[in-house]
From TrEMBL:
Top-level taxon: Bacteria
Annotated protein name in UniProt: Putative glutamate--cysteine ligase 2
Organism: Kitasatospora acidiphila
One GO process term, biological-process aspect: modified amino acid biosynthetic process
UniProt record similarity statement: Belongs to the glutamate--cysteine ligase type 2 family. YbdK subfamily.
Job of this protein: ATP-dependent carboxylate-amine ligase which exhibits weak glutamate--cysteine ligase activity.
Catalytic reaction(s) noted: L-cysteine + L-glutamate + ATP = gamma-L-glutamyl-L-cysteine + ADP + phosphate + H(+)
Molecular functions (GO terms): ATP binding; glutamate-cysteine ligase activity
InterPro entries reported for this sequence: GCL_type2/YbdK_subfam (IPR050141), GCS2 (IPR006336), Gln_synth/guanido_kin_cat_dom (IPR014746), YbdK (IPR011793)
NCBIfam families the UniProt entry points to: gshA_cyan_rel (TIGR02050), PRK13517.1-1 (NF010041)
Keywords: ATP-binding, Ligase, Nucleotide-binding
Enzyme Commission numbers on file: 6.3.2.2
Lineage summary: Bacteria, Bacillati, Actinomycetota, Actinomycetes, Kitasatosporales
Amino acid sequence: MTVPMGVEEEFHIVDVETRMLVARAREVLDRLPDRGFTTEFLQSVVESNSGVHASLDALRTDLVRSRRALDDAAAPLGLAVVAAGTAPLGRMGAVDVTPQPRYQHMADEYRAVADEQLICGAQFHVDVPDRDTAVRAMCVVSPWLPTLLALSASSPFWLGADTGYASWRTMLWQRWPTSGPVGCFGSAAAYDAAVTGLIRSGVISDVGMVYYDIRPSAHQPTLELRVCDACPRVETVVLLAGLFRALVADACEVVRRSDGCRHHSRQPWLRAMTWRAARSGLDGRLIDPATGQARPAGAVVRSLLARLRPTLEEFGDWETVSGLAEEALGLGDVAQRLRRVAADGGMTSAVDFLVTRTRAHPVATGPRARIDRRGLSARCRQNQAARLAAHRSGALPRRATRATAADRQPFAAGCDPMTATVLRPAPRRRSNGR
Ligand SMILES: [Zn+2]
C-alpha cells in the first residue's frame, strides 16, 4: 500500500552574531530557486515545500536537501535558519509584514494577534480517496493530534523568556478566530458551507485563513495536519509524517465502514487535550484519547504506536516509525532539551542548538563560542553526550512507561469513547460528551 504525502516546513531567520530573529526572508529567497521555497506572512520566515513522496526515506532525502539549500543561501548573508515553533530571541516590532495586499489586510485587521505571529510550524499533507472522506476522517484523527503536537513541541521560549510551556506557539496560534480543533462535519459540502459562512461574516477573508489543527485541502483530496511546531531535527518530521499518514489511512478505513459520526459536544475536550500537550509536551502527562484519562506522555505515544502498528507495517514504516518514536521518548521533547542547553549556556546557546539541529549536516567538533558553520559549542556537546550516556546506562530515569496490553487493542468496534465514530452494525448512539 502506498499513500502519497508531502511536508511544508517553516523556518525562522536569525542573525548568527546576535542570534535575534530578523526580517530578511527576501534576501534568503533571492538566493534560492522559486520552486520549493516561498515567503510567509512575516519577513522573518521562509517556507520550504517538499515534493510528493510515497516513502519516508524519499521524504527525508528531500527535506535534508531543502535544509542544506536554505543553509547555503543564508550563511553568506550572516544568517541561519531555525526550525522550531518559536525562535528563543526576538523583539516585537522588529519584523515586517510581507508586502502583499492579503498580508497587509491581515496585519490591519488582526492587529496584535498578527504582530505576534513570530511562529513556525510544520504542515503534513496526506492523500485521501475524496474530499468527503477527508472531512469525515479528520474527525476520527482529531483526538490524536495533541499527541503529535507533544512530539513536536519546540517552543518554550518567547522573546527571550521561558513561558513554562513546551509549545508556546500553540498558545499564540489559538488566538486566531478560526484556529484550534476542527468541528464535526458529515460531508465536504457541510464543511465548505461552514467555511463560506465564516468568509461571508467577514471574520476571515478567504479559505486560506482556516487555521484549524487539521483541514481538508480546498481543491485536492488531501488532509493537512497543522497542529505541530516546526521541528529542528529532520528525524522528528519523518516520525510525524509516518504517524500522520498511518492515522489518516486508518481513519479512512473507519469512515468507509461507518455510517457517520456525531461529535457535537467534543470541542471542549479537544481544546483541553491540546492545552495539556502544549503545556508539558513529552515531559508530563497527555490525555489518552482511548480513555479520556491523563497518562504519562510516553504511554500515550506507545498506545498510538500500538494502534497504528498494522497500518505502519503495511506501509513498511513500522521499524522506522517505532524506532524514531522510541528515540524521541528517550531524548525528550526539544523544549526540555532547549531548557537544559539554556541553563548551561544561556539563551544564545539555545539558538545555536536549534541552528545546528536544523542544518541537517554532520557537525564537526571543536570549541566555538558563537554560531558558525560548526554550530553548537563544545561545552554543550559534552554536556549532551554526558546526559545521553547517563540515560543509556540507566542513571537517568526514562520519562515514559511501557505499553500495556490495553494499548495494543486495535481501533475499537462499536462506539469508541473518544472517537465516537459509529461503526456498522453497532446501533446508533449519541456521543457521550467527549
Ligand atoms: Zn465527527
